[in-house]
Specification:
By secondary structure, this protein is α/β, with parallel strands linked by helices. It folds into 2 domains: 139 residues, Rossmann fold (3-Layer(aba) Sandwich), CATH 3.40.50; 142 residues, Glucose Oxidase, domain 1 (3-Layer(bba) Sandwich). The protein is 27% helix and 22% strand. The chain has a 7-stranded mixed beta sheet with strand order 6-13-12-7-8-9-10. A 6-stranded mixed beta sheet has the order 2-1-3-4-5-11, with helices on both faces. Helix 7 packs parallel to helix 8. The chain is globular.
Length: 300
């Protein structure tokens, strides 16, 4: 995989809005935080645009993304927020220049589409907080960890006991992101690069039967036959459904029970304030012990 150089004081980072409309205050306050890290921050031309639920027209968003990708002075791109919108334009963005001049692209949720596209080009990216959490929680661990990662400290995490955890060890590139987005990409050119990799999933505000449908799609599509491990992130704002008494974890456990790969449940990444950064496309080690504790490290 191709990895961008780590940042340093004086590196340039561009803030873009490739999906939904963003609160300008979050962008300006996140800019202040990034500048306090010693970075030079550029705001994309259409960051504050609005076209219905989207941050500008499809053409405006494509132009902003392409401009930042092609800009040799830009070292990293922070997506301002997720929401919805990248499915309309992802196939119209040319990522090829990043193979010659790689740069970090950061975000989560709808930004899973960009992570998936970069995976196809063999380029790593960062699943992380965006402008809202940078603006409101600059001194919290997710922001501090993100700064450490951008400046060269690869992450390693210890995850506590979870009764659903399935012991074992796995090694592979980390892939995935938002489950609903992954599901929406199945059968397209941007489908999961699953073979011998560790899959990470998270989601928000989905009925349990929707989650079951998406997990079964992954099973029926043969993804579980290919991956080396599974990391289950945060599934937030999920309504109770008595027809699924064990919730999200029970749904996943039932779907993976016949496979031998390790499963770590409850990793702190997803639609939560405590959203720790992960490098997608990077070699990752996952170890789930007999007592249910897990270690995920990318410091390899």
């Amino acid at each position: 995989m191709i990895q961008a150089p780590f940042l340093h004081i004086g590196s340039h980072i561009c803030i873009l809005s490739p999906s939904g409309v963003v609160n300008p205050d979050f962008v300006w306050n996140a800019k202040d935080v990034l500048e306090s890290w010693g970075l030079i921050v550029t705001i994309g031309k259409s960051v504050f645009a609005a076209n219905g639920r989207f941050a500008g027209t499809d053409e405006e968003r494509i132009a902003d993304i392409q401009s930042a990708i092609d800009d040799n002075n830009c070292d990293a791109i922070l997506c301002s927020r997720g929401g919805y919108g990248l499915a309309r334009i992802i196939d119209k963005i040319d990522f090829s220049k990043l193979q010659e001049r790689p740069k970090w692209i950061l975000g989560f949720s709808d930004i899973t589409l960009i992570h998936s596209a970069l995976s196809l080009h063999g380029i790593t990216s960062i699943h992380s907080i965006m402008t809202k959490n940078l603006a409101l929680q600059a001194k919290e661990e997710p922001a501090l960890r993100l700064k450490q990662l951008l400046f060269g400290e690869l992450p390693s995490y210890s995850i506590g006991y979870e009764r659903f955890n399935k012991k074992g060890t796995a090694l592979g590139n980390l892939v995935g992101g938002n489950l609903s987005v992954i599901y929406g990409l199945r059968g397209t050119a941007f489908d999961l690069q699953a073979k011998n990799n560790i899959l990470f999933i998270e989601d928000v505000c989905e009925p349990l039967y929707h989650i079951d449908r998406m997990i079964q799609n992954i099973r029926l599509g043969g993804i579980f036959n290919q991956i080396s491990g599974l990391v289950v992130g945060q599934f937030t704002d999920i309504q109770e459904d008595t027809s699924f008494p064990d919730g999200v974890y029970g749904i996943i456990e039932n779907a993976v029970k016949d496979y031998s790969f390790p499963v770590c449940y409850g990793f702190n990444a997803g639609h939560t304030d405590y959203n720790l950064p992960l490098i997608l496309g990077h070699k990752t080690s996952l170890s789930v012990s007999d007592n249910g504790d897990s270690i995920l490290t990318q410091n390899i």
